[in-house]
């Protein structure tokens, strides 16, 4: 057996794990932000290059670039929309299918092994992603769609974020949880804003420098996560974390909505804890004999039973009137939020501006969102709570306020005559953060049993994933139709988004807590 750490060494080891996991999450946020900032530009350039190489090669520079203004035609933008939607949709589907498999594997072989596999496969994914765009003279750009295959090898972004969260949760004392999450939130927002800004600036220099930085970030993550211990923390500590996360007050939930892992934590925590991991000191022959059939059965179960049970759990949750309305609100708000996947292309084409300028507005949006979320606990505690008294009334006020700001933002963006007005609309929308966590907190306080709370939390992620899968073709298809019909106002995209948010707002009156 492994030697147990001494009482003095254990806190030091936990602190080391905590900071390593936070560093990994910060680098992951940086890489994701740079990827998002450059993806639309890479797709647009690839399609424009192929088009003008065939029709008018004089517009293609020796390094393969095409002036961005020439890419804003209806035909080319339609192709960009279809390609981007296909890439996003393939990633969502593969991550949805792979999550049960790697959740089950993490419970058997340990979180570190799955993290190493995940980061390695994702580094390969981004290398393939960059190579498919860079080697345009050799590889057809459509080969980039195969990057989703690497998500099947490691579980993709959701699996990595949850396992990193579990390492942090397992290494932080319960009394220091809030402070740690606040610090993590600040770090994540800072790194994501930095990544968006770097990606935006490098679009005007050389986008493949951004690609090289992204690959370097994820390559560095591989040896970093290999330093993690075999376990992500004591089970009792993780269970306390889950209870704290589920039942904490609204201010804590709002702060944690800054985290990328916010919407996936609870399902994974419960699932990964359902089976004890293998210990590192198994006897060789016995472990080999016992492990193979166990892993095979686990993979088979994850690919069949677990995926079915996740859907069945949602169906059971929908049978309860209160949780059904909560789940419908989560579906509607997530469906509205998915429009962000098409926003860069829509804004760039509508206002005839560069994607670099649109990404800089996105970076500003992230900063405003951070400030809003950091101010929400103070607003809840010192302004709303003394006037509304009840915690669920405070949660409801934040839900309504967030939806109203989202509606106003969508209307301003839909009618914006210029990029500056569009930026104002984006800033208004950024002040409406906190809706997801306020809704979660409201639902938690309205349920009497811990089992009902856990069932709801596990269902939320599935519903949000299904909403993202449905929203990607919805908004991309609407944008494609708008581009194909010049007589249709381009603001119709955000008017549709506004309609979804108004429907969510009207449904609030039916959201009554069970007596």
From TrEMBL:
Top-level division of the source organism's lineage: Eukaryota
Alphabetized GO MF terms: transmembrane transporter activity
UniProt xrefs under InterPro entries: MFS, MFS_trans_sf
Record GO cellular component, one term: membrane
A Pfam family it matches: MFS_1
Alphabetical UniProt keywords: Membrane, Transmembrane, Transmembrane helix
Transmembrane segments: 82-102, 114-135, 141-168, 180-200, 206-228, 326-347, 367-384, 396-415, 421-442, 463-485, 491-511
Membrane topology reported for the UniProt record: Multi-pass membrane protein
Subcellular localization(s) per the UniProt record: Membrane
Main localization (coarse): membrane
Entry annotated with the keyword Nucleotidyltransferase: no
Family annotation (PANTHER family): FI18259P1-RELATED, ZGC:174356
Name recorded for this polypeptide: Major facilitator superfamily (MFS) profile domain-containing protein
């Amino acid at each position: 057996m492994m030697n147990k750490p001494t009482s003095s060494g254990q806190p030091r080891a936990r602190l080391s794990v905590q900071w390593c996991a936070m560093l990994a999450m910060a680098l992951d946020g940086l890489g994701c932000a740079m990827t998002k900032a450059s993806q639309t530009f890479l797709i647009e350039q690839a399609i424009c290059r192929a088009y003008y190489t065939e029709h008018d090669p004089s517009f293609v520079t020796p390094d393969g670039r095409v002036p961005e203004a020439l890419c804003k035609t209806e035909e080319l933008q339609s192709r960009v929309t279809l390609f981007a939607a296909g890439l996003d949709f393939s990633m969502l589907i593969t991550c949805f299918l792979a999550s049960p498999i790697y959740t089950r594997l993490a419970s058997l072989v340990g979180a570190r092994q799955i993290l190493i596999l995940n980061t390695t496969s994702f580094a390969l994914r981004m290398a393939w992603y960059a190579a498919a765009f860079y080697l345009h003279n050799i590889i057809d750009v459509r080969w980039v769609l195969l990057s989703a295959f690497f998500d099947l090898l490691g579980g993709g972004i959701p699996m990595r974020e949850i396992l990193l969260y579990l390492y942090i949760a397992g290494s932080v004392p319960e009394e220091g949880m809030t402070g740690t999450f606040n610090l993590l939130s600040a770090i994540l927002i800072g790194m994501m804003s930095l990544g968006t800004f770097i990606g935006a600036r490098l679009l005007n220099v050389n986008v493949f420098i951004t690609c090289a930085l992204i690959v370097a970030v994820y390559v560095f993550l591989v040896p970093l996560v290999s330093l993690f211990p075999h376990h992500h923390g004591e089970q009792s500590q993780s269970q306390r974390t889950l209870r704290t996360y589920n039942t904490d007050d609204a201010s804590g939930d709002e702060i944690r909505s800054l985290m990328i892992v916010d919407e996936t934590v609870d399902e994974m925590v419960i699932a990964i804890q359902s089976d004890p991991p293998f210990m590192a000191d198994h006897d060789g022959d016995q472990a080999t004999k016992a492990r193979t059939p166990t892993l095979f059965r686990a993979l088979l179960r994850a690919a069949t039973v677990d995926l079915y049970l996740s859907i069945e759990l949602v169906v059971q949750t929908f049978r309860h009137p209160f949780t059904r309305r909560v789940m419908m609100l989560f579906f509607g708000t997530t469906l509205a939020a998915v429009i962000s996947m098409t926003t860069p292309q829509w804004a760039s084409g509508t206002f005839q501006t560069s994607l670099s300028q649109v990404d800089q507005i996105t970076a500003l949006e992230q900063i405003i969102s951070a400030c809003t979320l950091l101010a929400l606990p103070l607003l809840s505690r010192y302004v709303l709570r003394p006037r509304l008294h009840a915690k669920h009334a405070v949660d409801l006020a934040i839900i309504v306020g967030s939806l109203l700001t989202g509606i106003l933002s969508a209307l301003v963006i839909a009618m914006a005559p210029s990029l500056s007005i569009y930026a104002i609309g984006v800033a208004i929308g950024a002040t409406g953060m906190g809706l997801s966590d306020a809704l979660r907190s409201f639902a938690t306080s309205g349920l009497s049993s811990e089992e009902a709370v856990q069932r709801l939390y596990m269902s939320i992620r599935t519903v949000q994933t299904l909403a993202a899968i449905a929203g990607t073709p919805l908004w991309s298809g609407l944008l494609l139709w708008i581009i194909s019909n010049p007589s249709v106002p381009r603001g119709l995209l955000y008017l549709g988004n506004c309609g979804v948010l108004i429907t969510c707002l009207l449904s609030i009156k039916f959201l009554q807590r069970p007596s």
